[in-house]
Amino acid sequence: MGFNENLREYARVIASLGVNATPDRYVLLRCPIEAAELGRLVAEECYKLGAIDVIMQWNDERSARIRLDNAAKEQFETVPEWRAESQNYYARKGCVAISIVAEDPDIFAGADSEKLMASALAGKKAFEEFYRIMDEGNLRWTVVAYPNEAWAKKVFPNDTPANAVKKLWAAIFKTVRIGRGDTVKKWWRHDRMLKRRARALNREKFVSLRYKNSLGTDFTVGLVEGHIWKGGSEKCVAGKVYFPNMPTEEIFTMPHCEKAEGRVYSSMPLSYQGELIDKFYVEFKDGKVVSHGAEVGLRALDRLLNTDEGSRRLGEVALIPYDSPISNLGILFYNTLFDENASCHLALGECYPDTVKGGEKMSKETLRAKGGNNDSANHVDFMIGTADMEIIGIKADGTEVKVFENGNFVI
Ligand code: ZN
Ligand code: ZN
Predict the structure, then answer these.
(1) DSSP 96-151
(2) Residues 215-250: pLDDT tens digits?
(3) Which of 81, 112, 196, 386 is the 20 to 30 Å CA partner of 188?
């Protein structure tokens, strides 16, 4: 297939598998201006599937940077009502949400961190209704990527901009299974594999996982009682299936936010709010980060951890074998959508309520009492997997089961 066919196919799978656009739903389509070509194709595909209407929400990270450098801090402390309504309204009416991301990993490097933090907190408050409807399983959503020049040059620094973009496209198409053969069939086969993996772990009912590797990671995390390992497609309350991330290779569950002990070292750089953090560690006591360090981007790591109380606690534990499709590409993407799918990771901040039995219906207080970290403006995945990662699962009676050896599943 040529590039145009691949792009059309990409649009088709985003609209169908990604959010499963249906005649009873609006589509909120967040699209960077560079990705306009893809955005328009996705809109067309959503209409073909019968969507009531497609609402284009254009964004541009370079003008966001200009605003950040020039507007006063107060401007970032609140989100105007009309803007909050631009999402909350459609969530109330019934929508699905597509986010196309095209991010320069360094776009906000050196920017005013107080404004960035204020903006994250204001966003959490303003879009609370939107996120609540999403958490209750009433809003199908997906995140997909589009290569822009700055991002591609970061990934392939020795190439010309045009070649770098071409290479990044090839990598993206590969990871979302576009190319030879039937894309949709390939996705369902992949989904069955992830579901099998999740089932195997669900049978074990581990109370905690212990991680060790030669970077110095020596860390144990408790899992919430009744936690559910998930992976691949999700089902909304209306019973429709969708894929929240494309690509996706992970299976993940809910850690107990008061049960984590020891130190974890990062295995890949992390781009947080447009700033890179690299070669860092976080150390936990009673589930809370009590010390941290970074060779690169310490300021951004400080900002992440200081956003709110929940940002110092874990909301997700995810397992991905070292020997897996994205990892085997050997490409560092500097983008969490890809890098998190190449490596075991943890997330600081919000948990996913549906990773514990009955979680979508629990009150905020009940979920927190169970150990779910559910009051944070952040949910930031950071990668910890290595070729020598060892993970032991521990059961309630103390039995230990090897889950990972030399970076791969042995269960
Ligand atoms: Zn994850
Ligand atoms: Zn995550």
Answers:
(1) EEEEEE---TTTTTT--HHHHHHHHHHHHHHTHHHHHHHHTT---EEEEE---HHH
(2) 999 999 999 999 999 999 999 999 999 999 999 999
(3) 386
Q: Which ligand is nearest to the CA of 340?
A: 1
Q: Return the axis-axis angle of helices 298-306 and 113-126, rounded to nearest 10°.
A: 30
Q: Cis before residue 247, ω within 30 degrees of 0?
A: yes
Q: How far is the CA of 69 from the centre of ligand 1 (A)?
A: 31
Q: What is the whole-number distance in angstroms between the Cα of residue 182 and the centre of ligand 2?
A: 28
Q: How many CA atoms lie within 13 A of 372 on its CB side?
A: 28
CA of 200 to the centre of ligand 2 (A): 21
Ligand number with the minimum distance to the CA of 252: 1
Residues, Cβ < 5 Å to ion ligand 1: 250, 252, 318
Residue 2 burial by CB count (10 A; 0-12/13-18/19+): exposed, middle or buried?
A: exposed
Going by pLDDT thresholds of 50, 70 and 90, the confidence category of residue 198 is very high
Cα 383 to middle of ligand 1, angstroms:
9
Give the pLDDT confidence of 18-66 residue by residue, as tens digits.
999 999 999 999 999 999 999 999 999 999 999 999 999 999 999 999 9
What pTM does this model have? 0.92
The rounded Å distance from CA 378 to ligand 1 centre is 13
Question: Which ligand is closest to the CA of 378, given by its number?
Answer: 2
- The whole-angstrom separation of Cα 54 and Cα 26 is 6
Distance between CA atoms of 320 and 232, rounded to whole angstroms? 12
